[in-house]
Amino acid sequence: MAGFAGIAAAGKSIEMLLNACFEALQPLEPPGNKTKAVLVRTSDFEKDNIGTQIGSPALSIFLYRVDFNKVMRAAWAGVTERDGRAHLGLDLHYLITPWAENAVEEHRILGRAMQCLDTTPIIAGPLLHSSGEWDGSEAIQIVLEEVSNEAVMRMFDSLPTDYRLSVPYIARVMRLDSRVAAPEGPVITAVTGITPTPTL
User: Fold this and answer.
1) Please, which contacts does 83-86 make with residues 24 or more away whose CB atoms are closer than 8 Å?
2) Which of 26, 28, 123, 187 is the most exposed place for a label (fewest CB within 10 A)?
3) The pLDDT of residue 185
4) What confidence tens digit (pLDDT) does each residue in 40-97 have?
Protein backbone atom coordinates (compact mmCIF):
# COMPACT_ATOMS: atom_id res chain seq x y z
CA MET A 1 0.00 0.00 0.00
CA ALA A 2 1.18 3.54 -0.68
CA GLY A 3 1.24 5.61 2.47
CA PHE A 4 1.33 9.37 2.88
CA ALA A 5 4.75 9.41 1.15
CA GLY A 6 3.16 8.06 -2.04
CA ILE A 7 2.88 11.45 -3.76
CA ALA A 8 6.58 12.16 -3.22
CA ALA A 9 7.48 8.59 -4.22
CA ALA A 10 5.49 8.91 -7.47
CA GLY A 11 7.50 12.00 -8.41
CA LYS A 12 10.76 10.29 -7.51
CA SER A 13 9.72 7.29 -9.62
CA ILE A 14 9.22 9.51 -12.67
CA GLU A 15 12.52 11.29 -12.00
CA MET A 16 14.29 7.93 -11.62
CA LEU A 17 12.78 6.57 -14.85
CA LEU A 18 13.77 9.63 -16.89
CA ASN A 19 17.30 9.67 -15.51
CA ALA A 20 17.68 5.99 -16.39
CA CYS A 21 16.56 6.79 -19.94
CA PHE A 22 19.02 9.70 -20.17
CA GLU A 23 21.82 7.44 -18.94
CA ALA A 24 20.94 4.82 -21.55
CA LEU A 25 20.90 7.38 -24.36
CA GLN A 26 21.99 10.96 -23.78
CA PRO A 27 19.93 13.46 -25.79
CA LEU A 28 22.84 15.87 -26.26
CA GLU A 29 26.27 15.61 -27.83
CA PRO A 30 29.03 15.20 -26.83
CA PRO A 31 28.12 12.33 -24.48
CA GLY A 32 29.90 14.05 -21.61
CA ASN A 33 27.23 16.76 -21.66
CA LYS A 34 24.89 14.79 -19.36
CA THR A 35 21.24 15.71 -19.01
CA LYS A 36 19.48 15.17 -15.69
CA ALA A 37 15.82 15.03 -14.71
CA VAL A 38 14.96 16.84 -11.49
CA LEU A 39 11.83 17.35 -9.39
CA VAL A 40 11.16 21.03 -8.79
CA ARG A 41 8.82 23.30 -6.88
CA THR A 42 7.57 26.81 -7.63
CA SER A 43 10.44 28.67 -5.98
CA ASP A 44 12.99 26.73 -8.08
CA PHE A 45 11.77 28.71 -11.12
CA GLU A 46 13.07 31.96 -9.61
CA LYS A 47 15.93 33.38 -11.66
CA ASP A 48 18.39 33.13 -8.76
CA ASN A 49 17.52 29.44 -8.22
CA ILE A 50 17.29 28.09 -11.76
CA GLY A 51 21.05 27.60 -12.11
CA THR A 52 21.44 25.82 -8.77
CA GLN A 53 18.14 23.96 -8.36
CA ILE A 54 17.51 22.98 -11.98
CA GLY A 55 20.75 23.51 -13.87
CA SER A 56 21.46 22.93 -17.54
CA PRO A 57 21.11 20.70 -19.45
CA ALA A 58 18.14 19.41 -17.50
CA LEU A 59 14.49 18.44 -17.56
CA SER A 60 12.37 19.80 -14.71
CA ILE A 61 9.40 17.81 -13.41
CA PHE A 62 6.89 20.17 -11.77
CA LEU A 63 3.85 18.84 -9.88
CA TYR A 64 1.35 21.64 -10.32
CA ARG A 65 -1.92 19.97 -9.32
CA VAL A 66 -3.23 17.02 -7.29
CA ASP A 67 -6.81 15.86 -7.84
CA PHE A 68 -8.94 12.84 -6.93
CA ASN A 69 -9.44 10.27 -9.68
CA LYS A 70 -13.06 10.60 -10.76
CA VAL A 71 -13.26 7.13 -12.33
CA MET A 72 -11.99 5.12 -9.35
CA ARG A 73 -13.42 7.23 -6.54
CA ALA A 74 -16.66 5.25 -6.17
CA ALA A 75 -14.95 1.87 -6.51
CA TRP A 76 -12.40 2.62 -3.79
CA ALA A 77 -15.17 3.98 -1.55
CA GLY A 78 -16.75 0.52 -1.79
CA VAL A 79 -13.47 -1.11 -0.79
CA THR A 80 -13.23 1.26 2.16
CA GLU A 81 -16.69 0.20 3.27
CA ARG A 82 -15.55 -3.43 3.23
CA ASP A 83 -12.10 -3.26 4.87
CA GLY A 84 -12.51 -0.12 6.98
CA ARG A 85 -9.38 1.55 5.57
CA ALA A 86 -9.29 4.77 3.58
CA HIS A 87 -8.27 4.43 -0.09
CA LEU A 88 -7.83 7.74 -1.91
CA GLY A 89 -7.17 7.48 -5.65
CA LEU A 90 -5.29 10.51 -6.97
CA ASP A 91 -4.31 12.01 -10.32
CA LEU A 92 -0.97 13.84 -10.25
CA HIS A 93 -0.56 16.56 -12.87
CA TYR A 94 3.00 17.32 -13.97
CA LEU A 95 4.65 19.77 -16.32
CA ILE A 96 7.98 18.72 -17.84
CA THR A 97 10.25 21.48 -19.13
CA PRO A 98 13.64 21.19 -20.89
CA TRP A 99 16.53 23.52 -19.97
CA ALA A 100 19.57 23.94 -22.22
CA GLU A 101 21.79 26.48 -24.00
CA ASN A 102 19.71 26.70 -27.17
CA ALA A 103 16.42 25.68 -28.76
CA VAL A 104 17.77 22.61 -30.57
CA GLU A 105 19.18 21.15 -27.36
CA GLU A 106 15.94 21.82 -25.48
CA HIS A 107 13.97 20.10 -28.23
CA ARG A 108 16.29 17.07 -28.10
CA ILE A 109 15.90 16.79 -24.32
CA LEU A 110 12.13 17.07 -24.57
CA GLY A 111 12.01 14.54 -27.42
CA ARG A 112 14.07 12.00 -25.47
CA ALA A 113 11.89 12.46 -22.36
CA MET A 114 8.66 12.01 -24.32
CA GLN A 115 10.11 8.95 -26.07
CA CYS A 116 10.99 7.47 -22.68
CA LEU A 117 7.56 8.09 -21.14
CA ASP A 118 5.82 6.68 -24.21
CA THR A 119 8.05 3.59 -24.20
CA THR A 120 7.45 2.96 -20.47
CA PRO A 121 3.97 4.36 -19.75
CA ILE A 122 3.43 2.03 -16.76
CA ILE A 123 5.68 2.40 -13.73
CA ALA A 124 5.47 -0.70 -11.53
CA GLY A 125 7.55 -3.09 -9.43
CA PRO A 126 11.22 -2.05 -9.14
CA LEU A 127 10.55 1.09 -11.19
CA LEU A 128 8.54 2.50 -8.28
CA HIS A 129 10.61 4.39 -5.72
CA SER A 130 10.82 2.31 -2.55
CA SER A 131 9.86 5.19 -0.23
CA GLY A 132 6.22 4.83 -1.29
CA GLU A 133 5.60 1.54 0.58
CA TRP A 134 3.82 0.24 -2.52
CA ASP A 135 1.54 -2.75 -2.62
CA GLY A 136 2.86 -5.46 -4.95
CA SER A 137 -0.04 -4.91 -7.35
CA GLU A 138 0.25 -1.12 -7.57
CA ALA A 139 1.32 0.73 -10.72
CA ILE A 140 1.23 4.28 -12.05
CA GLN A 141 0.26 5.13 -15.61
CA ILE A 142 1.96 8.18 -17.18
CA VAL A 143 0.08 9.72 -20.10
CA LEU A 144 0.04 13.00 -21.97
CA GLU A 145 -2.59 15.34 -20.61
CA GLU A 146 -4.80 17.41 -22.87
CA VAL A 147 -4.26 20.94 -21.63
CA SER A 148 -4.75 24.00 -23.84
CA ASN A 149 -1.83 26.29 -24.68
CA GLU A 150 -3.71 29.10 -22.99
CA ALA A 151 -3.93 27.11 -19.74
CA VAL A 152 -0.19 26.33 -19.84
CA MET A 153 0.64 29.97 -20.48
CA ARG A 154 -1.63 31.04 -17.62
CA MET A 155 0.27 28.61 -15.41
CA PHE A 156 3.53 30.37 -16.28
CA ASP A 157 1.89 33.69 -15.42
CA SER A 158 1.78 32.44 -11.83
CA LEU A 159 5.38 31.15 -11.86
CA PRO A 160 8.42 33.36 -11.22
CA THR A 161 9.84 32.78 -14.72
CA ASP A 162 9.03 33.53 -18.35
CA TYR A 163 7.13 31.03 -20.48
CA ARG A 164 9.13 28.02 -21.61
CA LEU A 165 8.32 25.12 -23.89
CA SER A 166 6.62 22.55 -21.64
CA VAL A 167 4.50 19.42 -21.94
CA PRO A 168 1.79 18.38 -19.44
CA TYR A 169 1.52 14.78 -18.20
CA ILE A 170 -0.80 13.04 -15.79
CA ALA A 171 0.18 10.19 -13.46
CA ARG A 172 -2.73 7.98 -12.44
CA VAL A 173 -3.95 6.29 -10.30
CA MET A 174 -1.76 7.05 -7.29
CA ARG A 175 -3.54 5.52 -4.29
CA LEU A 176 -3.08 6.74 -0.74
CA ASP A 177 -4.12 4.15 1.85
CA SER A 178 -4.58 4.62 5.57
CA ARG A 179 -2.24 2.57 7.71
CA VAL A 180 -4.91 1.11 9.99
CA ALA A 181 -8.58 0.33 9.61
CA ALA A 182 -11.11 2.64 11.18
CA PRO A 183 -12.44 1.21 14.46
CA GLU A 184 -15.78 -0.48 14.16
CA GLY A 185 -18.70 1.02 16.02
CA PRO A 186 -20.13 -0.67 19.14
CA VAL A 187 -22.27 -3.73 18.49
CA ILE A 188 -25.78 -3.38 19.81
CA THR A 189 -27.99 -6.47 20.04
CA ALA A 190 -31.70 -5.85 19.78
CA VAL A 191 -34.17 -8.65 20.42
CA THR A 192 -37.65 -8.17 19.04
CA GLY A 193 -40.86 -10.18 19.00
CA ILE A 194 -40.56 -11.64 22.49
CA THR A 195 -43.53 -11.31 24.85
CA PRO A 196 -42.43 -10.66 28.42
CA THR A 197 -43.49 -13.30 30.97
CA PRO A 198 -45.95 -11.82 33.45
CA THR A 199 -44.80 -11.83 37.06
CA LEU A 200 -47.09 -13.24 39.78
Assistant:
1) 83/181, 84/181, 84/182, 84/184, 85/177, 85/178, 85/180, 85/181, 85/182, 86/176, 86/177, 86/178, 86/182
2) 187
3) 52
4) 999 998 888 887 889 889 999 999 999 888 766 555 555 555 555 666 888 999 999 9
Burial class (CB in 10 A: 0-12, 13-18, 19+), 57: buried
- 3-state helix/strand/coil string of 80-93: HHHHCCCEEEEEEE
- Cβ atoms of 64 and 156 within 8 Å: the answer is no
Which pLDDT belongs to residue 50? 85
Torsion on CA atoms 25, 30, 31, 37, rounded to nearest 10: -70
Reported pTM: 0.79
3-state secondary structure of 189: coil
- Give CA–CA dist 136/33, Å, rounded: 37
Using the predicted structure, report yes or no on whether residue 114 has a pLDDT greater than 90.
yes
Instruction: Band the pLDDT of 152: cuts 50, 70, 90.
Output: confident
- List Cα–Cα distances, 95 to 92, 104, 128, in angstroms: 10, 20, 19
Residue 134: partners with Cβ closer than 8 Å, 6 or more residues away: 1, 2, 6, 9, 128
Q: Taking the CA atoms of the chain, what radius of gyration do you get in angstroms?
A: 24
Positive/negative CA dihedral, 40, 151, 175, 58: negative
Residues in contact with 124: Cβ distance below 8 Å, sequence separation at least 6, in sequence order: 138, 139, 140
